[in-house]
Amino acid sequence: MASSQTPLLCVALLLGCIFRGLPIYYKQTEWIGKRPEIVTPITSHYRTKECIGLVQQGVSPYDGSLCHTPPLFIAFLHTLDSFNEIHSDQVKAILLITLDLVASVFLYFFVCQEQLRRSRVSQPKKSTSAPDVVDNSSIPLLVAGFYLLNPMSVMTCIALSSSVVHNAAVIMGLYFGSKGRIIMATFWIALATYSSLYPVLLIFPVASYACEEQRFGSVSVFMSFMGWISLFMMASYYFEENWQWTRNLYETIILVHDLYPNIGLWWYLFTEMFENFNMFFLSLMHLEILILVAPTVQKFRKDPGAMIVVLLGIIAMFKTYPSISDFGLYLTFLFSETRLITYFQYGFLICCVFAATAVLFPIFWYTWMFNAGGNSNFFYAITLVYASAQIILLSDYIHAYSLHEYVTLKGFPKTTLSLDS
């Protein structure tokens, strides 16, 4: 860490702590933690509290359809409650705030490491006529500050959502992956996968980092990942003594059993659809993710940093239970790609659409749920607009990356290229 950036990072950490801590102190979790944009049935703090309450009564939380929290998380939180039942929410808030702050520091060092890797890899190839668009020295600080202070990350933490744990595990896993520490990297990616399945896709950039280091092969990475996942599964079985929890968690994620509204594309479709067609469209939509992953891994196999951005974008778009936390994490990693800023074509349009959806999401939710002036079509309509903006953003990023790659390899001045070519 550059000594000149240390005070600024400390200021960002302090502000991040204040922005998270004050609303929690003033009991804002009660309404923020129930917003469909911020929490989902998988990550809800209130559902987790219900699960812990059932455990305290000697009832398995997985006997019904309410609990979608992994057993190891429930066991940990139940242990916290047993020590300090009165202030359990405050203790959980302190832990989540601390975890968010620690994740931002790991993110800072990940961006530093990624810059070193890219400079090392591109040094022999880079033409003297390739354009230097931005000064990279302040990018790690800007990315860490963005993660700490952007409203999506802040509100997720205020809601005491388990997405904070998921995001921290992803960031730490990618950091250790970029350092070539495969055991630690696969541990954190496996933990994120254990809680929500989709981070399994991030094992591909970790394997790409390992191949670059030439100390481990892809097979070693996948074996280590499977070992950690097996350990988490067996530990969960030890606590529950059955596999019912896998139906409540993984089957719900895959088959979309819980149709509580969120900002994703799935809930409305399967609410309105005849049950006879459910399996067909489930297969089709899950297949779409797999179809997108294969060419992504192939195209970006030599640039795991770019692969991470695209995979996080795919997860944020096609996850069955997404929240603004997923988009915030994706946007944070995208924010590190400042070298591509001048190659984006639709930046202004995308910003306007996201600003409009940020305003209209709560308005349409209120109109549907409280004002009786609309129905689910209102809320789902803005969800489609939000998804369209994400698609345009990801497409624009891939186009900008490809154009930058062409310019860098060919050594042509950027001004001689047509963006339409």
How would you describe this structure to a colleague?
- The protein is an all-alpha fold and about 425 residues long.
- Helix content is about 70%, strand content about 0%.
- The protein contains 18 helices and no strands.
- The protein has helices at about 5-25, 30, 45-55, 70-85, 90-120, 140-150, 150-160, 165-180, 180-195, 205-215, 220-240, 245-255, 265-270, 280-300, 305-320, 325-335, 345-370, 375-410.
- Helix 3 packs across helix 4 and helix 5 packs parallel to helix 8 (about 165-180).
- It is globular and about 65 Å long.
- Mean pLDDT is about 90; it is low at about 125-135 and about 415-420.
Short key terms for the protein model shown above:
single chain; disordered C terminus; 18 helices; 421 residues; mainly alpha
| Fraction of residues in β-strands | under 5%
The largest pleated sheet is described as: none
Mean pLDDT across the residues is 89
**Global Rg:** 22 Å
Assign an overall shape. globular
Number of contiguous helices: 18
Poorly predicted regions are 126-133, 414-421
User: What is the number of strand segments?
Assistant: 0
Listing every helix as H and every strand as E from the N terminus to the C terminus, the arrangement reads: HHHHHHHHHHHHHHHHHH
Share of helical residues: 55-70%
Distance between the termini: 41 Å
